[in-house]
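Students often ask why we bother encoding 3D structure as a string. The short answer is that it lets us treat folding as translation between two languages. Here is a chain of 348 residues written in the first language.
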Amino acid sequence: MELIKFINIDEESRVPKYQQIIDSIIHNISEENLTMGQKIPSINRFSEEFYLSRDTVEKAYSILKERNIINAIRGKGYYINRTKLISKTNILFLVNKLSSYKLRIYNSFINSIGPNSHTDLMIYHCDESLFVNLLDKNKSAYDYYVIMPHFKTEDLKHTSFTENAIKALKKLPQEKLVILDNIKAVMKGKHIEVYQDFENDIYNALKEGIDKIKTYKKIILFYPEKAVYPYPRRILHGFRKFCVEFKLDFEILEEVFDDMIIKKGDLFITIEESDLVNLVKQAKEDEYELGKDIGIISYNDTPLKDLLGITVMSTDFKIMGETTADMILNNKKGSIKIPFDLIERDSL
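And here it is in the second language, the structure alphabet:
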């Protein structure tokens, strides 16, 4: 077959033979020596031609099949399955939920990573089993794995990592792994980390606005204990730490209740968008002026909050996506914390 003359197996190279086969086939497709639907040598023919073990060729073909680069037709052989993507860097972008914040990170990443990469977005809905299955199914299919680890327990509380999730992550080549948004000390190695520090971030952000915050009589944080997509409890720890240190009267509620009692001098901190909407609606009905009668701080910034003048404390999602792409493109390793700040607007 024509492919045979293009394949180069270097006996002196430290690169495993199966990887050389994979690289050669991908290279020849990118050079247009192979095209969609073209037949390639059988495993036996390939092993005989290059004096390789059948297991070596079979492993290479298996990985190429997992990456959808080749497919097998029973009784006929192996064929090139696609040609558009394989010359690019293939990336799995695995997130726990499809929120506006995650999409901002993803879109920033896509805009920064450039046209020579192809990224598949997958969602595991904070479900450990789905997460483990997705990684197991795709463990050989991508050049990089960008993963946001957030899980829910049986009682719908947040946990950053689970034992099974860590085991699944450690099965991936660590030099291909990017832990995004949320990290844990147990994950050590050659992988990339781009993260926010939930406990210290909220503490430091509130501390930035202490002069205005201390003019309010009471601070109420709405923290959903059992959300479909639970939030890190480190947010609670940072909030409590701030209030205790500065001797502020505070209360933690699960949600904004209908007909909730709102008093002048209250400062509200919301996490979920629905709570922010309900709170603003009730404040308007009670004819309270934001930033004067009551205060509102929302968690995570959006263009709409900017337009409405809602004070926020937020990480920079755009920078998070850009930084992740930069580290992949320039083969950087290490751990980078993304800035998290209080952005003061009219509601405080």
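Translate back mentally: The chain has a mean pLDDT of 89. Keep this in mind for the problem set.
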